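STRUCTURE REQUEST FORM
Protein name: ABC transporter ATP-binding protein
Source organism: Micromonospora thermarum
Requested output: C-alpha cells
Priority: standard
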Amino acid sequence: MLLEINDLTLLYGRIQALHGISLRVNEGEVVALIGANGAGKTTTMRAISGLRPVASGSIVFDGTDVTRMRADLRVIRGIGQAPEGRGVFPGMTVMENLEMGAYTRRDRSEINKDLDMVLDLFPRLAERRKQPGGTLSGGEQQMLAVGRALMARPRLLLLDEPSMGLAPKLIQQIFEIITRINEQGTTILLVEQNAQQALSRAHRGYVLETGRIVKEGTGEALLHDPAVKEAYLGVA
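Status: completed
Returned output:
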C-alpha cells in the first residue's frame, strides 16, 4: 500500500472540516475522491501534501508516518500535487515553471529526460515553452500545473479538480493524459467534481460528504450506484 489515511480529522478554527476519514491508495492505482463543493476534498489533499496540519489521525506514505512531516520533505519522499486553481507562476515562462517543479532534485540529466517526457505528454507546452505562464489559456495552465508536478518525479500524484473550468473537448484530453501518466507508472489520487470522467478512469473511488466518507468501491461499481448516479451524475 502506497498511501494509508487513518481516522483523519482536521479543523479550520472551530469548524471541523474532516470527521475521521480513512482511505487507502495502492501502488499503481488511480483512486478518485468525489463529492460536492465543501465536502472536504481539497482539504484532504492539503492534509496529504502537508499544507494543512491535522488535528488527529495519521497519514502513512510508503510505510512511513508523514503526518507531521514538512510539505517539502513530502515532495522529496515522492508526493507531488497539481493544486486546485492550477497555481502556475504567471510571470515565469512555461520552461521556468516546469523547472520549478524539479526544485528538490539535483540529477540534471534525469531532469532533462523528464522535461522531454512532459513536453511529449503536452505538445502544447512545447509550442509555448517561452511564453509566460500567465498568458496561457485555462487548459494550457492546467497542463502546465500537471507537468510541473510531474517534474518532481512523484510516486503519488495528487490532482485537485484538473477539469475545472475547461471546455468538454479539453476535459476529455486531460483525462486521457491522466490515464497515460498512470500507465507509465505513477499512482494517482484524483479529486474531481466531474464524477463521470473520474469514476470511469479510476480503479477505485470514495464519496465524501461534509467531511465524512459515505461510500467506497470500484470506479465501475460507484458509476452504477443509484445514489451516486442521482447525486453526482445527474441521473435519477
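Reviewer notes: The domain at 3-232 is CATH 3.40.50.300 (Rossmann fold). Strands lie at 3-12, 15-25, 30-34, 56-61, 64-65, 79-82, 156-160, 187-191, 204-209, 212-218.
Form closed.
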